[in-house]
Write a structure and sequence with these properties.
Blueprint lengths: L2 H11 L11 H7 L5 E5 L6 E5 L3 E6 L5 E7 L8 H11 L9 H11 L9 E3 L2 E6 L4 E6 L15 E7 L5
Antiparallel strand pairs: 1-2, 2-3, 3-4, 4-8, 5-6, 6-7, 7-8
Amino acid sequence: MIGAEFIAETLSSGTVFGLGVGARLRDVESAIHLDHVDDVQGRRGKRLMRRDYGLLEVTFGGEPDWECRWISVEVHRFSTSPDLIGEARELMGVEFSQYTAWSDVQCEFNRLADGALIQSPIVQHGYKVFRSRGLGLTVQVVDDRECIRGDFPGFGDVWSIEVALPADS
């Protein structure tokens, strides 16, 4: 599977590797076999734990059971970390490139699902932000025509995806 397909599947299902909001920490550990760093913040009983896998960031709450609150797919990190591309291929079976064009994702998404799920974008601080409130999805796409591909994604490239609790829940 290529990166655009992976992103389109995430958008059509509202999950990442079958994991979504509400998944328990043990389920995430069983599904994702990547090195990670944990960052726990807040006061006991109301703490959040952000687990950073490089490509993915999974945020949990509700200790001691640690339930997933949201998942971010940090697509922009491929532009500066070639090792991450190899890791995604070897451990997850996804062939990402340094950059993923939103137009490629849209083609894959339209093939998999009803493209109407993604609402018209909101433009914010150099990004187009696409949302599907019903699935709790947000996609940030670079919208600064002066941004060219290099150390970071360029105009029209996906920056990140977030899966969170749907707005109508």
